[in-house]
Design brief:
The chain has a single domain, classed as Nuclear Transport Factor 2, Chain: A, CATH 3.10.450. It is built from three helices and seven strands; from the N terminus they run ααββαβββββ. The chain is elongated, with a radius of gyration of 17 Å. 31% of the residues lie in helices and 41% in strands. By secondary structure, the chain is of the alpha+beta class. Strands 1, 2, 3, 4, 5, 6 and 7 form a seven-stranded mixed beta sheet that branches. It starts with a helix and ends in a 16-residue tail after the last strand. InterPro entries: NTF2-like_dom_sf, SnoaL-like.
């Protein structure tokens, strides 16, 4: 009986870890597509989102509460002609109905006008289990590398969802 219970607990933990990673990946997906409604579903009502908010980081942005977080995201996303985010889900630590994770990230963007940026960074996240799945309660981005030099390439206009 103990072995069956251990297996059941291990499977439940793996399912929870996969759901937490899915939340991280959904963030990247909706950020690239500019889906503001889907973005809203990823956050708890009392969440905190911080970009570049550790000592010595450039361009700190901070929003608290799901509505302010969506407003910040809308401001950041709507000014971009092109935006892409690649995320590599990292370590997930489970603790009942809460979890933490760290993920590596690369972003590139163009706009407004002829402004460019590329960066590599680390997301440090906390999550809470809700009736609708796992949501961010805190999401902090730390820049590791930042480049503002122009890059070449054309934007594909084939899909409005992939702008």
């Amino acid at each position: 009986m103990t072995n069956a219970l251990s297996t059941e607990n291990a499977v439940a933990r793996l399912v929870d870890e996969a759901a937490v990673r899915d939340t991280v990946l959904r963030f990247a997906d909706v950020a690239v597509r500019g889906d503001f409604d889907a973005f809203r579903t990823l956050w708890s009502e009392d969440a905190l989102w911080v970009i570049g908010g550790t000592d010595g980081q450039p361009f700190e942005r901070r929003a608290e509460g799901a509505d302010q977080i969506v407003a910040l995201y809308r401001t950041l996303r709507e000014e971009r002609d092109y935006f892409i985010q690649f995320v590599i889900p990292g370590v997930v630590e489970m603790d009942g109905d809460t979890a933490t994770a760290r993920s590596m990230c690369h972003e590139a963007a163009r706009g407004p006008g002829e402004s460019y940026y590329r960066n590599n960074g680390v997301w440090t996240d906390t999550f809470r289990r809700t009736d609708n799945g796992w949501v961010f309660t805190n999401r902090t981005y730390e820049y590791l590398w930042l480049d503002f030099s122009p890059f070449t390439g054309d934007i594909s206009w084939g899909s409005a969802d992939a702008r």
